[in-house]
Give the backbone structure.
Amino acid sequence: MNQVFLRRIPRFFIYKAVFSQPRALAILLLCTAFSLIIATLTAPLMIWVLMLGGCAVIVRIAGLSTMHSLPTSRTVNLLAILAVFALSWFGLSAGLLDSMINLLVVASGLKIMLVQKTRDFHLLICTCLFLIGCGFISSLSVFAWLGYTAILALLLIATAIYHGAGVSIKKNVKFVTVLIVQAAPIALLLFLLLPQLPPLWQMPTSKSTETGLSDTVTPGDIASLASSSALAFSATFDSPNDVPIAESRYWRAITLEHFDGKTWSISDKRKQAEQQLALMGKPTPLSVLAENDLPQVTNYELIVEPTQQTWLFALEPSSPNNRENSIYVRSLFDYTLRANSPISSKKAFYMRYFPNANITNGIGKFEAQLNLEVSMNGNTRARMWGQTLANQYSNAQDVVEAVMREFGNGGFRYTLSPNAMPTDPVDRFLFEERAGFCAHYAGAMVYVLRAAGVPARMVTGYQGGSALNENVLQIRQYDSHAWVEALINNVWVRFDPTSMAAPSRLTFGLERALEELGESRQTTILSDFSNSAFFAALQSWFQQLDYSWSKWVLGFDNAAQTNMFEELLGALTPQKMRFVFLTALGLVGIILALYFLPKRQRKTLSPSHSILLKAIKHVEAETGVQRGNKTLSTYLAEVLPLLSADAANALQQLSAQFELDSYAQQAETQQTQTNMKHQLKVLKQARKKKS
Amino acid sequence: MPKVPLLMSKHVKRRLLKWLDKRVPASHEHHLNLNSIFILPSGFGWTFIILSLCLFLLGTNYQNNLMLLLSYLCLSIMLLTLFYTHQNFARLAVKALPPNPFHCNLQGEMQLQVIPHTNSPTKSCCGMLSIKWLNAIRHVETQERTRDYTVEKSAAPPSYTFALNGNIDGHEGQAQTLHVPLNIATRGKFTLGRITIACDFPLGLYKCWTHLDFQQHVTVYAKPLEGPVTIDKVASADESKSVSQINDSTNNDDFYALKDYEVGQPLNRVSWKHVAKNGNWVSKSFTSLCSDSFVLSIPSNVDIETAVSLLTFETLSWSAADRVFGIHYKGLNIAPNHGVEHMQKCLTALACFNRHTPPFSPVDDSTVSISKRQNERASSV
Amino acid sequence: MRQEIIRVQQALSQKIIGKDHQLKLAITCLLANGHLLIEDLPGMGKTTLSHALSQVFGLQYSRIQFTSDLLPSDMLGVNIFHSHESDESKRFSFRHGPIFSQVVLADELNRASPKTQSALLEAMEERQVSIDGVTHALPSPFFVIATQNPSYQSGTYPLPESQLDRFFMRISLGYPAWEAEKTMLLQQDASAPLSQILNEMNLHQMQSDVSAVHASDAVIHYILRLVSESRESNDYPNPLSPRASRALLQGAKAWAFVSGKAYVTPEDVQAVFIAITAHRLMLPSHQLGQGPQTNAFDGEKLSQKLLDSVDPLAA
C-alpha cells in the first residue's frame, strides 16, 4: 500500500520529506561533506576510487527516498573484497600515504551505503574528519583552510541534526557556527602556546605531489617547469637594502656533475664521497664559512612550498641558520643544502648569505677530476671544439671567455620550444639548431669546457624572482634555471651562458625575455584579463594574503614560537615556560567562563538600591533578624528597637531616601547618593562600636 | 553464570545506591544541578579525542600547521561540547506523577513530567532522553518473596528513548509527560527505585546522566485468573431491613432494562405484561441493586497465589458490572460495597495479602451461603 | 484634599467603630472607582457602612434587598406603557429601577438567582443598562457595595469565580473589639445621619488625583512579580488575571492617596493586596466542597502566602 502510494507522489515531495526527518537529513549532509572532501582529494585518489565514492554517495542519496532500496550488506561486502584486491594491486605503485588515503575513502564510501546504526554514523564522521586532515597534506592555502573548515562545520551540523531530535535546522546551524567561532580562540591559543614538536618519525610522502626541480636534467625538462607559475618559495629579507640585485639572484639548488651524453645527473661518486666525508666528521666549507665572522652577512628567511624532496635552494653561497630552523639543514661539500626530512608542508628556513664569499673547491683534487670526465658517447664535434680551444688558450679563464663569446656572437637564439634533439644533443645544439633554453646552453658549455680541460659542472636552481613588496621576493617555478660553474684558480666561478643569448632573462625575468623574443610562456584567454588593472590588483592582493598566511600561519614553527615568547618574556627559563603553560590553561579557563558562566542579570541596581541592600545586610548581621520578603517599613518596625540610636536614625534616613529615590517621581541626585553613603558609613561605625 | 562476580556487582551496586542516596536525595521533583549530573565522553567522544590526537601526530610529523590547527580545533570543540552538554542537561527538571497501580502481568508506567527548571525558566532541555531503571524496586514493603525479584533483576533493563519537544522557542507549550514503562513481576506494594536519565544532546560527544529517586510508591495488583470462586449471599446486619429492601427493590429503584429471563431469577422481576402479550419471558432489571450483596471466597486449601489471582479476576469482573460484593479469604475480609474505590481497595488488599497480614476487617458472621456457582461472570453481565 | 479625607475617615469611624483599616479600604475602593464586596455575617454593619459612605460623600443612595424571586427588571427598571395619557403621548416610558443611583447597596447578593446576579454584574462592569434595546447610562460615580452572607445556607447561589473577579475588593468587617463595642454601646445618637463632607465634584477630582499618583517602575515590577508568581507557582489554582493586576495598581494608588502620599510604595500594594486578591485567588467552591467561610479563609491564606513569597525590594 505504502509503496504504491509513494510511487505516485512526485519525487520532489519525497525529498521534501527527507528534510523533515532529522536522521535522513543528517546522512544527506554527511554525504555532501564526503563528496566535497573526495572532490578536493583528486590528486592522491585513484580514478576508480573517486568513482566508487561518487557512486556510493549517489546510491545513498537515492536510497534516502524510499523508492530505491539500498544495496544489501552482501553486495557491499563483495564490493569491499573487490576494492581490497584493487587497492593492493594499485597500492604498490601509489605509495604508502596515497594508498592509505585511498583505503580510507573506499572504506567510508562503502560504509556510507550501509549506514544504519549510530555507531556507523559516528565512524563516518570521524573518518571524514581524518580525511580533512589528509587534505591539508597537499592543500595549504587560506582558501583550503576556509573550505575545509566549512566542511568541518557541515559535518558538525550533520552530527547536531542527528542527535538533536526535534531541534530546528536553523537552530542547529546557529549552534555549530557559534561552537566553531567559540572554539577558534581556544584552538588559536593552543596553537600559539603549546610547544611545537619536531617530527616524531619519518612519514611516507605522497609521490603525486612532488614538485619543483628534479635531480636529473635532460634538455626539455625545465621547459615544462617554465609553464608553471606556481610559487616555488618566497624570500624575506630584513630590509629593502639587503635584497640582492636582479642579476645576482641565483638560488642554487643542485650541482649536476655526471653526464651520460644525454642526461645530467648527480654524480654517484659525489654521493659516495659526501657520505664518507660526513662519516669522517669533516666540517663542510659552508659551516666553516659560517663560523668565520665575515663582515657582510645578510640574513633572510625562505618560505618553501612543499616539494616532498630534501634539497633546498639558497642564494650562493648561503649557510643555514640551524638554530632557528625547525628542520635541520645540512650543507654539502659542493655548497648545496639538504633538509633532514622531505619538505612536506610550507616551511620556513633561515639562511645567512655571504655575498662576497667564494665557492671554493671543497674536496681538493676529487672535484676537479670528477668534473673533467667527458662522456665519449657522441657529441664528437663539441669535443673537438673543446680541444681546439684548449690548444688555443693556455688559461682556463680565457677558454671560458671564448665559449661565452661564442654564445654571444654565434647567432644563438633563446627559445622555450626548441626542436627535439634526440641524438648528439650537444653537437646539434651548438652547430645546427643554435636555439634552446638554459639547460641547453649550460649543458653544452659544461661539455665543451670539460673537453677543453677546464673542470666545469652544471648547476640548477632558480634565477630571479619578483618583488611582492620591498622586502619580499617571490620565486615561481618558471624562474627555474641552469647555469655553469667552472673551476678557475681553485674557485668555482659562475658563468651563465644563457645571459649571452638573452640578457633580459637575468635582469627582467623569463616573461620579459620571452616577450622580447616574440614568444610567450603560455597563451590563454586569461592573459588578457591579467593585463587589466583590477585583475592585477586582485592578484597581488591574493599573493600578499598567501604570503602572510605562509609566513604567519604555515611558517609558525618552534623558532617562531620561541621568538614570540622571548619577545614577550625575555630569555626563556623553565620557570617561565611553566608560567606560559599555566597562563594557557588560565586563558582557556577564562574563555570558558566567558562563554558559560551564567550571564549576570543585566538589571543594574540603582545606586541607592544597592546602598540600601548593603545597609540591610549589615542590619541583618547585627540584629540577627532576617528581612526575608518583608517590606521596608515592616522590617524597620521590627529592627529599629534592636538598634542603637545612631544606627536606627541612619537606617531610617537611608530607607526614607531610598523610598524617595525608587518610588517618588524624583530623579536620583548625586547629593542623595553621597548622603546615603554617609548614612551607610554611620551604620557600619555603629556596628563596630557595638562589637 | 559464575556466582562471585554476581555477588560482587551486587555489592558494588548496593554501595553505589547508598552513595547516591546521600548525593542525590529522593524527591518528587528534581531540578538537575552540578551534584546530580554525571558526565563522561561517549564512545563517539573517545573516538573524537583519539582522532584529534591522530591529527596532532600527523600534523607534527608532517610539520603541517594546518593539521595541528584542525586537531586543536577538534579538541576545543570537544572541550566546549562538554560544557554545552552539561548546560543543556542541567536545564532538565522532572516531576513524577503518582504512578497508577497495574497488574503484575501487564506493563505499568511511571509518568514523568518535564517542568521548567528553576534556574533557567526560559530555556529548557532539548534532545533525546534515554531512560532506564537503575533498580526498579527500592525495597518491598510487604516482606514477601524476594526470589522472583532477584531473577527479574539479573536481566539488563531495557532503555527507553524520548524526544524532548523542548520549548526552545520560548513559547509556553504544555508540559511534556514521559511515560516510562515499568515491569514488576510480583504483586505487592513497592517503593520505586532509581531511574537513570541520560542525554547526549548537542553532538553526542558526551553522555550526561543522572540517577533519580522520585519517592514514588506503586501497588502492583495480582495477575487476574479466571476460575471457580464461592459466592455467598450476605444478609446485612439488620436482617429484616435487608429483606424488605429485597422485597421492595422493584418499587424503589429505577427501571433500567429488560433482559431475557433466566431460570433462578426472582419471579417478581418478571415482566408479566410481556409474558401475557407474546409469551416471551422477560425480566426487569434495575440500576441499583444495593440489596444484592455477595461475598466472594475461596476455600483455604487453595494455594495463596492462585486464590489471590482468582479473587483479583472476580473483583475486576464484578466491579465492571458495578455489583456489590465483598471478599473473604483466610485472614482477608472486606465488607461488601461497590464502586471504583471499593475495587481499588479490594485489589490493593489482594495485592498486599500474605499469610502474615492481620485480618483486614472483623469477620462478619451473618454470611449465609446461598449458591455456589461455577462462573458468576456469565450470569452477571 | 488631605484634610477632607481625614474628616471622612473620622466621620465614618464614628459610625463603624474600631474598623479603621476596613473603612480606609472602603474609601480606597470608592476612590479607585471599583465595586466593593462585603462578606460578613448579619448585623456587622454592612448596611451602616454603605449608608454612611453615601452620606459622607453626598451621593444618592439606594438599596436593593436581593431575594431568590427578584427579577432583573425589579432592579434595572421597566418600560411602562402610559395608557391613560392622551393619544399622542401614549407611549412607553422607562421607569428607572433602584440601580440608577450613585451608591447601590446590593444586600445579600448571593440570595438572588444567577440571572439577576449577572444582570447586576453586567451593569457594574459596563456602567450602563440596556433594556429593550435602549441603553441607559448609569449615574456617575457609580459604586456598588454588595454584601454576601458567608454562612452556608440553602437556597443561595454563591457567586461564581468569574463574577467575583468583577469586584474590585472584598472585605469583611468582623466582630468589633471589646473596647470598640463598648464605645458603640455607649453611643447615644447611633442613628443620627452623618453630615455631608464632600460633594460629587470633589469625588471626581479625587478620582482623577488618584490616577495621577506616581507609580514608579519598581512598584510596577513588584506588582508584576506578584502576579507572575501566582501564575508560575503551582500553589495557586486560580492565578491572578490582568484585571487583577490593574486593580492592584489602581488600589495601591488610591491607598497611597488616602494615606496622603504622592507616590506608591510596595507597602501600599501590600496594604490593599489581600482585599483585592483574596477573592480572586480562592479555590473554586466545588473543588473545596465546603462552605464559603472556609473558602474565604483559604483565599486570604493564599494571598498572604503570595505576599510572603515575593520580595518587594528585589531588583
Summary: Chain C is about 50% helix and 15% strand. Chain C touches chain B through one residue (CB under 8 Å). Residues 59 and 102 of chain C are 6 Å apart (CA to CA).
